[in-house]
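To whoever picks this up:

The parser on our side crashed when reading a file containing two proteins. I've narrowed it down to the boundary between the first structure block and the second sequence. Both blocks are reproduced below exactly, byte for byte. First block:
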Amino acid sequence: FLGSEVAASCSDCHGAHGVFPAEDERSLTSAANLLQTCRTCHEEAEAGFELYQPHPDPRDREKNPYVFYSFWFMNLLLAGVLGVFLLHTLAWWIRIGVDLRRASSGPGSGGGKR
């Protein structure tokens, strides 16, 4: 969780100063330094531990199929829910307009044909 005392923050893995791209050997997240970086919190981490992807790309279906499909499912669900409520709101407004027209042209309203 954000702000959690027990969860890692960005600086735990990437450092607070001297942040370099992962391709740079000075980076805490470079291939040469990654396992040692993981061991600052996970003392017992063995080779292979650093292969975990903390920031998976939701657009890469080959590397992250579960994240990819979850990402698309949730986005389609969001679009569907918003679409249904948009249509519902438009139908509601149309209904209000029809009711107002009927009320303004009813008997004693002064509306309608003269």
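<<boundary where parser fails>>
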Amino acid sequence: MRAMTDGRQQPQQPPGPEQGGEQQPVPKPGQPTLPFRAATPPPGYGYPQPQPQQPGYGYPQPQQPAQPGYPQTPRTGYGYPPEAHPGTPEQGRSAPAWTPPATPLADVGPTHPGEPDWSALAERAEAGDRRRKVLLYGGGALAAVVIGAVVATAVIVTGHKRPAPGPTLARPTTPAQPTPSFSDVTPPPPPNPLTIISSAKKDTAPLTPDGLFAGARLDFKGRAYTRTATDATDTCYTLTSGGLGDVLAHNGCRELLRATYTRDGVAVTVGVAVFDSGAAADRAKNDYQGYVQPLAGGGTPAFCHATACQTTANAVGRYAYFTIAGLTDGHPVTADDPQTKGAAADVAAFAFNRIVQRGRDQAATAPAG
């Protein structure tokens, strides 16, 4: 129970720290009233044991139970700040800059009933942010799926129709090139030269000694011969001996053409008998006997008279050709004489080639078929 005074309130000393307790810091005027925790030094030599902490500045001091029958007087004496509206600086003084406490606010929990739990509020706010992000991402994905479904449905409903392309500039076109056309009819093969020279009806080109034995010189396989004389007759048997005339006449000889070639003392006369068909020429070759009379002249003396000589016979187409070869000095030719035998073969091959070339020349100008 308090003693009565003369009505004037005496300043009271602020309660000092309890024995062994810690001096509470005196707050500066205008400093924000934020909760903080006082650091308690660890117990050691020369220090008293820690006592329960007193509420810091800015928190209500624990009140003594009210004494019945006496009004409570506000404590405004020394050591307590005057009453003021929260957050409003005192009249005539500027609020100093706020200095953060040594201990982070997140670590400070509520110290008095009714004070909000700042850590819990921060955690709830962070959880709310996470939920909003999840909802935002999920909503975006769902919107993309819905848009894709709408587009697919629209494509199906419209029958997969795509917008028609816009007009394009016409490119210059080149005129169509004509394509060759081919007949389905196979053209007939060209005439066969042998077929032409085998028939008097087809073999109609002019025939003369100079045309058949063309050129004054004969070159065959590197061997050169000189043509010295030529002649022709339509009475074939008059230019033959030893029964050849009868063979030619029997098979229908139409003409006999002769030519003489000389080389190194050897003279060769070739006679070509002309028939109406290839069959007649083949028969004359097969029935061959006798020989063609040798043709002298043009510097070639008479040869193969009353002496042995080399003779041959062959046929191609409607032509039969015969050769007689001997020495120009009148000596007889032996059976194995290579010089006269070779000369007779060369001149006979030349006659064959000239007859075939006659057929080729006519086939080149004859109509097909």
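After patching the parser it read the second block fine. Helices lie at 118-157, 193-196, 209-212, 244-250, 278-286, 338-365. The mean pLDDT is 74.
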